[in-house]
Amino acid sequence: MIKRIGLLTSGGDCQALNATMRGVVKGLTNSIDDLEVYGFDDGYKGLIYGKYRMLTSKDFSGILTQGGTILGTSRQPFKLMRVPDTNGLDKVEAMKQTYYKLCLDCLVILGGNGTQKTANLLREEGLNIIHLPKTIDNDIWGTDMTFGFQSAVNIATNAIDCIHTTAASHGRVFIVEVMGHKVGSLTLHAGIAGGADIILIPEIPYDIEKVVAAIQKRSKAGKRFTILAVAEGAISKEDALLSKKDYKKKLEDRAKKYPSVSYEIADKITQKLGSEVRITVPGHTQRGGAPCAYDRVLSTRIGAGAAEAILDGEYGIMIGVVNGKIKRVPLEECAGKLKMVSPKDQTVKAAKQIGISFGD
Ligand code: F6P
Predict the structure, then answer these.
(1) Which ligand 1 atom is at minimum distance from the Cα of 286?
(2) Per-residue model confidence (pLDDT) at position 171
(3) How far does residue 343's CA lie from ligand 1's centre (Å)?
(4) 139 has catalytic annotation
């Protein structure tokens, strides 16, 4: 019977991290009387440098609705995991030592893509690992849904909703820039839910002329305003043709002129139409606050699914959701893969069907 588990949250935070850890621990303490839970501070940092604390069931009470993470988090890039720290410490060996010193039966790791790669590395190194998919980006391959996503969709949607009234009074063009890193899922969903007129996502490179034409079409139809939901990773058709190296250079140059892609797009629209364009960047608010009801349920299911796998002694997996069912997905199958929006996705088709422009 298992006795000791470790928990850590790594990478950018999101809503429902606490709700998920609560699900895991409640799911285990229901069956194991003398379970010991160790929580590592600030993600992999705590595991590397042996910074942890023992948690009791009290720590997991009242946290279902609490945003952020009771453990703290940090970004520890996967590509640097094999690189010794400034004092020459071998991070992977250090993480293994902490694990063995505490005699852990398994380590439950909550995080996104980068976190998952390191989780898989630790699995390859022989540790018992369970990964739980968190991110507002919903870009983890092997699961239909990540916790945090729906909460962020609600916040980004609210931002677009709020813009609607002011856009209507002033008759302006507005851009709401949505997070999501290299993936457009969050923008697609918030854009549709918020009734955006134009949605620009990385998976569908835009042509600025088409964007401008969509705005003009609305003006001709007597609409006083246009709202664009622009993914932070949105890319133009010309830029999509660049090599990785040239695009990186282009982004470096752009950063000298514009704070983000929305400002570049706004500038081009103003140049071509002379219209005033206002930009709203909800930024990290999209990761903040309490998890929505959907995420609380999802997190409870994922947490309980992790507890079940631990009780079965099955490790080296991510607990995902596939076609509505909790699924144990081997880490070696999913680690390192990104789940992008398919331009042929039914949701994209539906949006196009009702006249939303993707600038393509
Ligand atoms: O991966 C989650 C995410 O919020 C992305 O949507 C965004 O690009 C990134 O993290 C922001 O990271 P940071 O919090 O390090 O600025």
Answers:
(1) 4
(2) 86
(3) 23
(4) no
Two tokens, residue 288: 């903040």
Q: Which of 137, 139, 197, 295 is catalytic?
A: 137
**How far is the centre of ligand 1, averaged over its atoms, from the C-alpha of 181 (Å)?**
6
Supply the pLDDT for residue 60. 97
In angstroms, the CA 248 to CA 35 distance is 48
Please tell me if the CB atom of residue 261 comes closer than 6 angstroms to any atom of ligand 1. no
Instruction: Specify the residue with its C-alpha closest to ligand 1, atom 7.
Output: 181
The whole-angstrom separation of Cα 230 and Cα 199 is 6
For 311, list phi and psi in degrees, rounded to 5.
Answer: -65, -30
Cβ of 10 below 6 Å from ligand 1: no
Distance CA 48, CA 183 (A): 30
Rounded distance between C-alpha atoms, residue 308 and residue 314, angstroms: 9
* Amino acid at residue number 178: V
- For the Cβ of 133 lying below 6 angstroms from any atom of ligand 1, the answer is no
Question: Does ligand 1 lie within 6 Å of residue 114's CB atom?
Answer: no
- Under 8 Å between Cβ of 39 and 59: yes
Pocket of ligand 1 contains residue 137 by CB under 6 Å: yes
DSSP H or E run through 25: helix 17-29
Q: How far apart are CA 309 and CA 202, in angstroms?
A: 36
Residue 96: exposure state from Cβ atoms within 10 A (0-12, 13-18, ≥19): middle
Q: How far apart are the first and last CA of the chain?
A: 56
pLDDT attached to residue 297: 98
Cβ–ligand 1 contact at 287 (below 6 Å): yes
Measured CA to CA, the distance from residue 285 to residue 14 in angstroms comes to 10
From 69, 78, 136, 187, mutation site for ligand 1 pocket: most ligand atoms within 8 A of C-beta? 136
So what's the pLDDT on residue 1? 81
In one-letter notation, the amino acid at residue 266 is A
Close Cβ partners of 246 (under 8 Å, ≥ 6 residues apart): none
pLDDT along the chain (360 residues), means of 10: 94 97 96 95 98 97 97 96 97 98 98 98 98 98 98 98 93 96 98 98 98 97 96 98 97 97 98 94 98 98 98 98 98 97 98 98
Within 33-135, strands assigned E span: 36-40, 52-55, 106-111, 129-133
